[in-house]
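Researcher: I need the complex structure. Ligand is flavin-adenine dinucleotide. Inputs:
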Amino acid sequence: QKEIEAPIIIIGSGYGGAVSALRLCEAGKKVLILEMGLNWEKSGIPFSNLLKPGKSAAWLRKKTIAPFMNLFNLTPFTGALDRLEFENINIWMGRGVGGGSLVNGGMAVTPKETYFKEVFPNLDATKFYDFYFPLARKELKVNVIDEQFLNDCPYYKFTRVGEEEAHKAGFKTMRVPNVYDFKYMEKEYKNEVPRSALNTEVIYGNNYGKNSLDKTYLKKALDTGNLEILDLHYVDNIKLNSDKTYTLNAQNINTSGDVVAEKVFHCKKLILAAGTMGTLKLLLRSNAMNDFPIGQKVGKNWGNNGNFMTGRNFVNPLHGGTGAQQSTIPVGGVDNWDDKEHPFFTEIAPLPMGMDVATALYLLINRVDKKGQVSYDKINKKIVLDWDKTNTEKMKENTDYFIKKMNKANGGTRAHLLFDNGFGANICYHPLGGCVLGEATNEYGKLKDHDNLYVLDGSLIPGTIGVNPFVTIVAISEYCIENLIKQNEFA
Ligand code: FAD
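Model: Output:
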């Protein structure tokens, strides 16, 4: 068994991990990141697209795990997209150096200030809107599509149709910023560069165009010379030692998922950035196995960010559909947040199937009126999620309202084929909470009952933020790590 010492270890290389790594490295600290997924860039293995799922399509499975229409015949490989399955909800997430940034839609949305204040009453909203959100957008290279390109490009017919229909139904729409480089996309369209978003690449990774974390925060951190990333290293559990240091039991796997080495890591300072579900699993499992102290609040105040997927089929043959060719990068949304009775935001989502399936797809984001809870089942050694249809009742009502209003104004039916009765209540891309800032942790993410352990990822956000979450995860992580460094936590 190999034993490795490192002063600061970060578990996970998604948003929280990448932000912490950069700021610590800039402050001259040596940092080691342990990431269970593959370093795709280093491996040289290309990402596959939606129409030809290959190695990157799924984490160690024989069948793809897109939200619908899945294919068999995969050779199990440490792919970029993974899914956790619970009784009433499935949760998707990214695996690899860059975490969720490898597989997500890149939608970079800043929450509404009023809702941010409601979710985080103890944070200084002015400081966030003047400094941390602009900083996050700058580092993530957020940009906006050119309106002329959007109007002219056949790959955005789905957005133009979606917006026209929303307006006809009396809804307000908004332009959605993204980390995908739209100048690159314009060149793709002219066939000047290899295609990515215009070649159905997204949830299995993008080979070009997308500013994922390996191209932004992680690249900058590596350029300092202070960061080392070990990929294909899965941390199974953590022990707190009597001298307040930590011991991590980890497995080094190969790309088929076989364990090639058991490793033990020791560190003085530990940052958990394994994503909401990964961090909760580590904390709850370590608690069950090793009496690891976690306090009463870990696992509480969890939510799906109001995610609710739905779709509409166009029955009218004269409708014209949403286009056979679709960019994978969403740029339009319906903003109904200020409606007191039916507050929601929805992405006008692409459905690039290689043919015009005459279906409009939407991922709604709602408020989360009733939160869930995550706990650990010691017998079956897995995390359990207390979440059922009572948690999504209001989300379903909003979705029903939206679809009915859209169909009334434009024609169409609920997409029964895609989802059970047209309602994808069990689809979650945005798990949040369970280790909430100021509840399970102190005001800057230090876990209660610990001197040397910090949580910096989506689990800090109490289950809801009203928009796609990564800009907020980055802003909160920037805020926490800046203050932790200022307080000499890593001296
Ligand atoms: P993550 O980015 O999930 O990173 C955690 C990392 O830790 C992962 O790389 C994981 O492999 C690693 N890890 C976990 N456990 C262990 C362990 N035990 N040992 C070692 N490593 C471990 N959000 C948006 O804002 N806009 C979007 O357009 C958008 N689209 C999405 C589309 C899809 C298909 C999905 C799945 C998500 C989408 N999201 C989107 C959500 C967004 O990607 C996540 O909210 C975000 O990635 C969470 O960041 P994080 O730092 O909490 O953790």
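Model: Summary of the prediction. The CA atoms of residues 225 and 420 lie 51 Å apart.
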